[in-house]
Each structure stands twice: as C-alpha cells, then as structure tokens.
Amino acid sequence: MATLGQLAKIALFSGSMAATGNVIVQSFMLWSEQTTPAVVVDSNSSMVDRKAPAPSYDLVQTLRFFSYGVAFTPISYRWHAFLNARFPMADLVAGSLKQRAPAPSSSKALLSQNTSAVLKRLAVDQTVFAPVATLAFVGGMGAMEGLSRNELAERLRVQYPAVLLAGYMLWPAAQLINFSLVPLAYRIPFSSTVSLVWHTYLSWTNTRTKPNSVLSQQIAQAT
User: Fold this and answer.
1) What are the extents of the domains in the chain?
2) pTM
3) Rounded CA gap, 51 and 34, in Å?
C-alpha cells in the first residue's frame, strides 16, 4: 500500500494529467475560433451588425479538472487495492504484490491462475467501477460548475451514456495491461498517463454539453 506522501504525489500527478487534457481542448477550441469567421448575433434582422465577444481561456475550468483528478485518486487507489486483494496473482512481476496467491506447481497452472485473476479484475472493474466513475465525473463536474438540479439531470442524460460507451472503447485494453503487468503502486500513474487522452475527450464532451441557460447568457451578452 502507498504511504500518505506517495498517495499525495500520485494525486497531484493525476490532477495534472486531467488539467493537461483540458488545456489541450481549450487551446484547440480557441485556435479554432480564431481561424473561423466570427459569429454575428442580431435578434432583430438577418443583417450582420455586431460580432460575438471573442472567446477567452477559462482557467477555472482547468482548475476544476485538476481538482477532480486529485479528489478521485484516493477512491481509485482503494479500488485497485481491493481488486489486488480480492483476486490475487502468483508472482508475475517482481514486487507487484505483497501478498501473493500460493504458486501452482507448474508454469502452465501459474499462467492459467494469473490469466483468470486478470480477467476477473477486468470484468469487475468495467461492470462495477466504470459506471460509478463515469457518474462521479459527470455529476461532480456539473456540481462544481454550479448547475441547477434540472441542468444536472440534463447533463447526465446527454453526457453519461456517451462517456460510458467511449470509455469501453479505451479502458478495457488499458486496464488489461495495468492489471497484469503494472505493480499496484504504479497503477494509478499508469492510468493517469492513459487518461491524458481520456481527459482530453472528457473535457471536449464537457464543453460541448453546456446547459442551454449558459449558452443563452453568452448570446445575450453579444446582443
């Protein structure tokens, strides 16, 4: 098990990866806005008479992603520790487990035992933890944005299924490597490195699913 200091370092690393994904998305969107003709808003006619305000970088949004990455790390680490204890493996990677299952007498039996443990970890992780983690992200980010109950419900309705489905296209393969080859103390950093791509996607979906009230406010400011 990681010490408190090690867990703090892991949490900061995870938060940094989440924040970096958001930086990538915001930077791309700002670049895209600058290279696309400005949208003009005129509520009275079809004539162009006023440009929408230029977009700016949202530092608070990046801090929200950083905070989420840090806050969720202890939960994720405890989950990995639970899987580690619940489905033990024989000596596959030196130092990967403090408590190992008794080693079978043959290499064929050893491989079979480890394969079974990895597949069980993967199945439980993707059927139990993945839906909960997705709900925590969508709900947590919505709460930090100050969404109302109705707006949060709409965010969950729109974003949750898409994010969960996208996660199933990435995480089973990543976790298969993580559970079978990576020592427990390094599983969260490994996941966080993979999550640079994942949080880039999450940031993109989170930005695209702004509540209608926020969009209405932006249009109102431009008129």
Assistant:
1) 4-93+104-222
2) 0.76
3) 13
